[in-house]
Protein: Oxidoreductase
Organism: Streptomyces xanthochromogenes
Amino acid sequence: MLGARREDRLREVVDRITAQGGEAVGVITDVTNREDLKRLTDTAVERFGRLDVLVSNAGTMAVSRFDDLRQDDWDAMVATHITGLLNGIGAALPVFRRQRSGHFVNVASTAAYTVKSPQAVYAATKAAVKVLTEGLRQESGPDLRVTLVSPGFINTEGVGKGASPEVAAAFIRQRDEMAIPPSAIASAIGYAMEQPPGVDISEIVVRPTAQA
Ligand SMILES: NC(=O)c1ccc[n+]([C@@H]2O[C@H](COP(=O)([O-])OP(=O)(O)OC[C@H]3O[C@@H](n4cnc5c(N)ncnc54)[C@H](OP(=O)(O)O)[C@@H]3O)[C@@H](O)[C@H]2O)c1
């Protein structure tokens, strides 16, 4: 099951998976919209009979200095990282409880561990992801699994996207110097998922060796 806002990109991934003999379904999803998450999890259950894992990965790195007053970007980070994560929990938790199994994988950032200017709003919302994930883990027993995955610099199109011009330039420079591929995060998530029942990988931090 794939959820994303951009229909063309969603269709492209679904087509790539089905062309290789896999089965995939895409649902247009804006994580800030509670109904969209519900539709995503309901569709998973309808089409595949169950929901094994919810990976909450949507994020925005529209970072800027406070003096720039980019308040829409602050709001978007709060809405995507905090409300979006809660919408996923609200949609998947009843399904997981009914099944007596399920796995939340929440993507934070190394920014959840240390704040570096001008990333304060981003870091605060990612610290919230970390806190919510730990609280959820404490309440999720005895059947459910909860994993926090915190990437460092990863080579994606999102680095610098929407950030103020000087921040974007610095981020892109750092990305080009040291970023590691997204597959490093995918394999960390795969590792958490492939554990036998009863084993919870609670927290994974994956960063380039070159990242201070
Ligand atoms: N790349 C890094 O260095 C890095 C480091 C630490 C943590 N992370 C985290 O890793 C995650 C993935 O980021 P990325 O690097 O892969 O960036 P990306 O290429 O920009 O991917 C982020 C995705 O999230 C989607 N998204 C944003 N807001 C959304 C919403 N309201 N509803 C649904 N989807 C939404 C974006 O969709 P649209 O295409 O529609 O905008 C985009 O596809 C994020 O949570 C990010 O904070 C990344």
